[in-house]
Write a structure and sequence with these properties.
- 10% of the residues lie in helices and 30% in strands.
- The protein has 2 helices and 9 strands.
- Strands 5-7-8-3-9 form a 5-stranded mixed beta sheet, with no helix packed on it. The chain has a 4-stranded mixed beta sheet with strand order 1-2-4-6, with no helix packed on it.
- The longest helix is centred in the first third of the chain and has 15 residues, at 2-16.
Length: 181
């Protein structure tokens, strides 16, 4: 009987610590994502590369990095290689990320939209990913214009889980701008 109590005790501890059914702990980024926009971007202008860190569902909301409804803009110079490091920080819902035409961000089933750039989404954007899961995707931003970074879960973008993704032919560096609160 004692070994059963130990096993049950370990299962209870695992669930209490948030280890989940698969026995993995959420990533530190899911638990404590940075709040300063400067920490969401790293770039090498000489190599024409940029990495954006995208935290989905901050405070269990419909947002990326705590911004939604287009209140954040990620800008990248045309023809740069973009890497998006994505983490779902929402412990209540699955989320995903994809770059779609701006006009499509209000569609209920946005995952059926064509991606603007080949490879510009997390795997299976209509299914999303669970809390704490880290995923990356990379693409070349070879078409200038204003697009949307949107969650592909049906209804999420329509509820505000989208922001601007701008590819600029005149920019010389990547940038993140956010609406003033």
């Amino acid at each position: 009987m004692k070994p059963k109590r130990i096993v049950v005790g370990l299962a209870t501890v695992a669930l209490t610590l948030g280890l989940g059914a698969c026995g993995t702990k959420p990533s530190p980024a899911a638990q404590n994502p940075p709040t300063n926009p400067a920490q969401w971007l790293s770039q090498s202008p000489s190599q024409k590369t940029v990495t954006f860190k995208v935290y989905a569902g901050e405070n269990n909301g419909m947002n990326f990095n705590n911004y939604g409804h287009g209140d954040m803009t990620l800008t990248v110079p045309a023809n740069w290689r973009v890497t998006v490091d994505f983490v779902n920080t929402d412990n209540a819902q699955v989320h995903s990320a994809m770059i779609v035409p701006l006009a499509d961000h209000v569609q209920m089933n946005i995952a059926s939209s064509a991606l603007v750039f080949s490879g510009a989404s997390t795997p299976d954007p209509s299914l999303g990913t669970n809390y704490g899961v880290h995923q990356s995707f990379s693409f070349v931003a070879n078409k200038s214009g204003d697009y949307a970074l949107a969650c592909g879960i049906p209804g999420h973008a329509a509820m505000g889980m989208w922001d601007h993704f701008n590819v600029s032919s005149s920019a010389t560096q990547a940038a993140i701008t956010v609406a003033k609160s």
